[in-house]
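Here is one chain, start to finish.
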Amino acid sequence: MTASKPDTATLSQDNFQITAFEPTHLDGALRLSAEAGWPHRTEDWQLALSVSKGVVALAGGEVVGTALCSPFGDVAAMNMIIVDARMRGRGLGRALMEQVIAFGGARELRLTATADGLPLYEKLGFAACGKVLQHQGIAQDATPELPVYTGDVQDMPALAALDLQASGLSRAGLLAVIAAQGEVLRCGNGFALLRDFGRGRVLGPVVGQDVASAAALMAEAARRCAGQFLRVDLPSDAGLSKTATQLGLVAAGGGVAMKKAAKTRAPSNYKTFALLSQALG
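Its structure:
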């Protein structure tokens, strides 16, 4: 959970109403994320909402809180959890979370926690399972050490199956949409998606069988984005933080990966080396 930054206005309403997140709430949600310092554009919110069931909190007709549950098969991602700073201390974060946890049902629930949200998530039964390292900056031109080529939207059913093996997330439809809007990079049996996001572009997910192919995919993304802003969100055990820094993508924070009702997954030769996003896993 993130609190948006306070402004000089105060809300006279002590009460809030929680209702279904509808497209008409996007402008208010965008305001909250901007005040929280998040880079999301309207298009980024629309993409998240398209694969989610969510709620907003309203006070005086104003959006003062958001939360989404994105179901991907046996796993659901809790994301875009923001509370207006003027509404802190009123139980709003918990109320929002209880709603989206209910949407998740019996699924394994995942989220990336900010420092602000971590205590609440622990109280709600989430446990830390790793860290997410956010790297970003102006990408430097690079030459991949392994051959990388451009894939196609037609590749996505097979690549989504690899993503499922690596992450446990069944999200073929979402990956197909992103592939159609962006670029598909292939290296050996691995792949990555490159798309517009926030201040520039984002690379993710990056899925492969070894660090070498994942590093090659990252280098190719930097080559294609040379001189432009590029972001990548890395699991702390991916082994690619140094590579990202060498490509001009410096460490810029991150979060704590957490799970609730974690399930045992079958072993896989594939690994997620970069998340699709902190929000969507």
